[in-house]
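Model the whole thing, not chain by chain.
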Amino acid sequence: MLEFQFASLAAFFEMAPHGVYVWPIYGLGLLVIGGLTWVNARQHRQAIRMVQRNLEREETHES
Amino acid sequence: MSIEKRMLARELKLIAARPGDIFKPMWFLILVISMVPLALAPDSDLLAEIGSAMIWVATLLALLLNTEHLFQSDFSDGVLEQWLFLDRPLAWLVGLKLVAHWLFHVLPLILITPIAGLMLSVPTEVLIALLITLFVATPALTCFSGLGAALTLGSSRSGILGVLVMMPLFVPVVILAAGVLIRATDGSDTLPLLALLGAFSVVAATLVPIAVSAAIRLNIGGSN
Amino acid sequence: MGWRWFHQWGSPRWFYERAGRWQLVCGWLALILLVVGSLWGLGFAPVDYQQGNSYRIIYLHVPVAFLAQAMYAAMAVCAVVLFVWKMKLADVAMQSIAVMGFAFTAMALISGAVWGKPTWGTYWVWDARLTSMLILAFLYLGVIGLRAAIQDPDQAGKACGILVLVGVVNLPIIKYSVEWWNTLHQPASLKLTEKPAMPASMWVPLLVNILGYYIAAAYLVLGSMRAIVLERERRATWVKELVGRA
């Protein structure tokens, strides 16, 4: 069941005649999932920064 | 006077105060339909072919733009809040408002469509089918766009957000109506599809006001 | 298990602390499954005799299309939980799923369109599946737009909940009517779907990919939910302690 379907690695990347369709799609998939991960991380950081700023503001109010 | 009569009387008074409100969507329809031959071709055969579909879409748009601010003025005047204290279920009052809106704003629009049909040389049988589908479908459409109006009541710069929010829900109605129009052009039996369309409208008219009243309650009460 | 487990979900703090771990597990699991599954589908699944190598797009398109629909259903479940049990986390989940679900819908549309080009000659056809997917995209956009338009988060959550519930009831009606509309105009069905009999060498990698994308979706939603929880609960003591320690 598991045999490599292409003659060479170059043929794999070319995937004639449809490589120009297949590879960009997978690239897009990677980009989207990666991008969303990055957006989540950024939102997380922003939330932490917001709380930190609030903490600092409270401390300066108390002192 | 019963609550229902008072509501209808109030709607009539509002219309009488600003009769222009009825004509604006009608103008919109005629204007859009006038654009079609300009954008397409003066050739009347082509126009007749797509005419009924174009009129349907233009009527849909006119209805949407009109229903956008269905609850806005009542909301700002505080009338909606008073509804909560009336001796009727909110969904019932919402339904009344929607009925009034259909009678006074949507019906005039439908009655103008034969003129649009004339402009696009739509054949008579198709025109009759067009009128019937509009009659049958617009209750559902009015209810759905009412839901969009109610959901976006609280928001500041909603613009046409309510319209956009509701558009996907119109798809089954549009498809069914288009089916009827195609059958009318062919000359085959339109009744089963019309019955389906009618059933959809009835169900929508019964259930959607419940969702609309939930949305109104939400926007009046704020969060709780 | 039972009700105690269920009620723990009422605590954003409990969720935040656990979700970090779940997110990590899901992330790695998804990565492994997707790398293995994609390479398998791209390099080791047999060439399709009709479509050649272009069919390999299905290893991304099909899972993502399933997810697009499943995530809308998940939002509907969140809406029910929100209205019945008033669980705030359900609203957070709804908010996260809306964005992620839309991303997957967009991917499904684009991959479907690009797959259509070598197969049918055009990037876009109004066939039943693509059209339904497009309307699903609009439904997602509506939920996202409505959330953005309402300032108060609780109110926004309930409004979106209403919209999602109305949408989910209409979704089967929309799908059915679009399929029917399609048969009206194209009796010789112009299908982008696979032929029914797929050999195991083709559908096994597909399963791997489906599993991989589902877990990836869970990973993304969890990550988004944690950020939103932190932001919404910013005045809570546990959040301040958490950040203060860092």
